[in-house]
Design a protein that fits this description.
Layout lengths: L8 H12 L42 E2 L7 H7 L2 H11 L3 E3 L10 E4 L7 E3 L4 H4 L7 E2 H16 L2 E8 L23 E9 L4 E3 H4 L19 H15 L5 E3 L11 E4 L6 E4 L1
Parallel strand pairs: 4-6, 9-11
Antiparallel strand pairs: 1-11, 2-3, 3-5, 6-7, 7-8, 7-10, 9-10
Bound molecules: zinc ion.
């Protein structure tokens, strides 16, 4: 606990967790925001159980937006189920509602075809795809992916291979931790590789050429010369600039993300992270 005297952002977050954990059930489900400055990191009051490897541990890249409510990510994340289904209908997206209900995901949907020319799929055998939980997306995430598909299309991408969007939460999960959030809520997707129309594959593991802790986007970020790395960064940074997701995690974030991008909608927050 002596480490709680450390001024580092990481340890402050950990210490906050340790200190608030016993009363976490009474705390807000999402990070408490400090108004210190527009660029200050969220003072994080996360519960221990929410510290999955996908949860941002470092907040040095978190940015609060004064006009967050006007961003696509914020608007989508706040949608209720019926409003989201109505928007999917209005856009005539190739999605169908999942008849079966799954724990934690409030509006489960599956893609039935390409979105703006982009196929989103797992590597699961074709015969099993239509029943696999890993190809379920919450309706709200599907709207964000519809927007993202235009970014992908502009770069000539035609296919996106993911390990999963939804992942059923562990049986021990309660509504106070994983359930309904991130992958357990169908609100996050892990993208491992993408194909361009000329047949070139871009694999996050092989082609991103990142370094843990390095900035991903912006003028001060490293700019690898390899065209594959340039393209992958462009996709991530365009999605970030357009605020299509609250969290985008890359191999620069930590070792578990060495082989995929994590794109996530986080309801109720006004910060954005690309790391
Ligand atoms: Zn993920």
């Amino acid at each position: 606990m002596h480490r709680c005297l450390s001024p580092s952002v990481y340890w402050r977050a950990v210490c906050t967790t340790l200190l608030v954990a016993p009363i976490a059930h009474a705390a807000p489900k999402h990070p408490i925001h400090s108004p210190r400055s527009a660029k200050s990191a969220p003072a994080h009051a996360q519960s221990r159980s929410s510290q999955s490897h996908h949860h941002p541990k470092r907040h040095s890249d978190a940015v609060f937006l004064a006009d967050a409510e006007s961003t696509p990510a914020y608007r989508y994340a706040q949608l209720d189920v019926s409003s989201c289904y109505a928007e999917v209908n209005r856009r005539q997206l190739p999605l169908r509602r999942e008849a079966q209900s799954w724990r934690g995901i409030s509006a489960p949907m599956r893609f039935t075809g390409p979105v703006n020319g982009i196929v989103f799929r797992t590597d699961i055998p074709a015969a099993e795809r239509s029943s696999s939980p890993f190809e379920l997306f919450d309706c709200r995430l599907a709207l964000a992916l519809d927007d993202f598909s235009k970014v992908l299309r502009a770069a000539g991408i035609t296919e996106v291979v993911l390990s999963s969007a939804y992942r059923p939460p562990p049986k021990s999960a309660s509504e106070h931790d994983e359930q309904g959030k991130r992958h357990a809520g169908g609100l996050a997707v892990d993208v491992h590789r993408m194909a361009r129309e000329d047949g070139t594959w871009f694999k996050v593991d092989r082609d991103f050429h990142g370094r843990i802790g390095a900035k991903v986007c912006g003028k001060s970020a490293p700019h690898p010369a390899m065209p594959e790395a340039v393209l992958l960064r462009r996709l991530v940074c365009d999605a970030s600039e357009q605020h299509l997701f609250q969290s985008i995690l890359t191999p620069n974030y930590d070792r578990p993300h060495h082989n995929h991008f994590h794109f996530e909608l986080t309801p109720g927050v006004k910060w954005f992270i690309v790391s």
